[in-house]
Amino acid sequence: MKTLSRIYNALIFAFLYAPIVVLIIFSFNDSKSRVVWNGFSLRWYEELFRDEEILAALGVTLSVAVIATIVSTIIGTLAAIGIRSVNRRLGKVLLAVNNFPMVNPEIVTGISLMLLFVFIFRTTGLLQPGYATLLLSHITFCIPYVILQVMPKLRQANPHLYEAAVDLGCPPVSAFFKVMVPEIFPGILTGALMAFTMSLDDFVISLFTSGASAQNLSVTIYAMVKRRVTPEINALSTLMFGAVLILLVLINVLQIRSEPSRKGGKAK
What we know:
CATH topology: MetI-like fold
Largest sheet: none
Structural class: mainly alpha
Order of helices and strands: HHHHHHHHHHH
Radius of gyration: 23 Å
Number of strands: 0
Distance between the termini: 43 Å
Number of domains: 1
Shape: globular
CATH architecture: Orthogonal Bundle
């Protein structure tokens, strides 16, 4: 039975990751062929970094991801603390409201945000579809993920530590940064990495909210596939896969490291 289970798991992983492995291998192919190997080469990576359209999209993607991560992490952390401080029934309602955007189809979220931005632009002249709308939409859908990561750490934290620090004369703001933040920092960091990954990977919402003046990598790749398909896309996809893989490994390592320290603290 164990052998069959292992074979089944191996087949599932092969089905999931074989296309990615093939894509990575052919990103180093010397020719344009996607089926015939003509020798190892970094040609398509060199072509990729000469493509101004892709480099511009990469700049938009990274800047939006970094800013959205910082803003959503701050807002999400404060929101999680606020949800934790209210009574239990209201907290459950707020968490349900927070979870709804994550289970809501992305196309619904994208269309809703697009209609909101179009309405604001037509009535006030502000928020013309472009970089600002793309950034706001990424901040919007990243916040729930941050809240979801910070909430478990808030439940594990000892609420009396903050109260004790204030009672001993520490100012509330200073007590928050010196007592509360270190307690929930693993959750904050995990939420930030999750927000960065989600922003880096998003396509559907970006397609509806970016406009023609500012497009991220996923929208640019989609446009490239419709016009022309070159091995540059293999190289770009390989780099994106590597970046996301590194972030996911980092998230898991941080979670594993936080467990022993938390258990050690409880034991003391």
